[in-house]
Write a structure and sequence with these properties.
Length: 431
């Protein structure tokens, strides 16, 4: 039986809890030179795509600007359009919000990106985290949580209808739906790859169903081979009800990696990186997001609060998606773990907040990544280096050649569009 081929994307997340922005080796998170260096390295490694995050409002905590948002974040579509000019084959994926955009305008922008890039565009569909973000927009408030995916689903369906030529095959449309009532004509020709690749980010049951119905790939997270296999089986099993085959949706968890010359070296380096990612200040900030209280007076190396989280609607963290389904249950689990392993606040946060990591020598990381894919825990990975923009270069230089030697990753691009890179069926409209 032929081995599955790995899909590899590279995530430029902006400053977040995984990015060690304070490291002397880190570069700018907003200057175009950083984006260009990152993308050129990814293309040198023959990776499938580069993936940009988006933030529509600077996050706040306890009424103060979040320390990870001090530099802001450039507009995703503008950066991707610029990257199209300095790359040739690399896919260009951007996170774009379905709550605070309109289908005609965004479909037109993505169609333009697909043209200027020669068929390399992708859209990571996300919904708004709430009213705080909505204050920046004419809409003013926000959609209730249960309506956000419904709007996103109809948004994607309408955008695809426009890319397919509308009602008459020549761009005209007259659409009346639950979320949108629009009429007009799209003024962009048919796209090189038919439709931009649609990515969905999220692990909830609602998100999984949206992905099974509407997405080409799902950006997810899981922490073990077994958890990945369970997620993979669950999402793939949803596809037949929408007339889709298993190969029509790619499962791509976001993962970090830490490489070393020996396993011991890699483990020591990983421990150092995690302490950089979770500074004493960050540990308190992250604990506050669960407890929903001002904990600034707590010692980061001391014990967890002995009182429960505030579960009222008001929140100390503004502009963030909800992190925990049940704050009280999660707090109980954290207290039990801290008691069992004698962990202070910072050490606990380091343990419970880490993204899935592949840690080891380049050969060990290549072997483990390949094992996940061959054993159906994923179809590939979206790599999230802790150093921006240089972190992806180490993976390209030390791990990619080993995957190529195994015959599970391309030596060179065979096609020109992102849809071809991912092995997805063409969505081009017949002439």
């Amino acid at each position: 039986m032929a081995q599955k081929q790995l899909i590899l994307g590279a995530h430029f997340p902006g400053v977040n809890n995984m990015t060690v922005w304070s490291d002397p080796q880190a570069g700018s998170q907003i200057e175009f030179e950083s984006f260009e260096r990152f993308a050129r390295a990814a293309e040198r490694g023959k990776l499938d795509f580069v993936f940009l995050a988006e933030g529509l409002r600077l996050r706040e905590q306890r009424g103060q600007l979040h320390d990870l948002d001090v530099v802001g974040r450039p507009n995703t579509l503008v950066v991707l359009a610029a990257l199209a000019a300095v790359t040739e084959r690399l896919g260009l994926a951007g996170t774009l919000n379905a709550t605070f955009n309109e289908p005609y305008n965004l479909a037109r922008q993505l169609a333009t990106l697909d043209h200027v890039s020669g068929g390399r565009s992708a859209w990571n569909v996300v919904t708004s985290p709430g009213a705080f973000t909505g204050e920046n927009f004419r809409r003013g408030a926000y959609l209730p949580h249960e309506q956000r995916y419904e709007r996103a689903r109809e948004f994607v369906e309408l955008a695809r209808h426009l890319w397919d030529g509308g009602d008459d095959g020549h761009g005209a449309f007259d659409y009346q739906g639950a979320q949108f009532n629009v009429r007009g004509r799209l003024d962009v020709p048919p796209l090189p790859q038919g439709h931009p690749i649609i990515i969905q980010a999220g692990d909830s049951s609602q998100g999984r169903e949206f992905a099974a119905r509407s997405a080409d790939a799902i950006f997810t997270r899981h922490g073990s081979l077994e958890q990945g296999q369970a997620f993979y089986a669950d999402v793939k099993a949803r596809l037949p009800r929408y007339g889709r085959a298993e190969a029509d949706l790619k499962i791509l968890p976001g993962v970090g990696f830490v490489l070393g010359d020996t396993p011991e070296d890699a483990a020591a380096r990983h421990a150092e990186v995690r302490r950089q990612q979770v500074s004493p200040q960050t540990a308190i900030v992250l604990l506050e997001q669960l407890w929903n209280r001002d904990l600034s007076g707590f010692d980061p190396d001391g014990p967890l609060p002995d009182f429960d989280p505030d579960v009222s609607a008001a929140t100390v963290a503004k502009g963030r998606t909800r992190q925990h389904d049940d704050n009280l249950a999660t707090a109980h689990q954290w207290r039990e773990l801290a008691r069992r392993e004698n962990l202070g606040i910072r050490d606990l946060i380091i343990k419970v907040t880490g993204r899935q990591q592949f840690v080891g020598t380049p050969a060990q990381v290549a072997d483990e990544m390949n094992r996940y894919v061959q054993q159906n825990a994923s179809d590939g990975f979206i790599l999230v280096p802790h150093l921006i923009p240089s972190g992806i270069e180490e993976f390209v230089d030390r791990v990619v050649p080993l995957l190529q030697e195994k015959g599970v990753f391309r030596q060179d691009y065979a096609g020109t569009t992102l849809r071809e890179h991912l092995g997805l069926a063409s969505q081009a409209v017949p002439a």
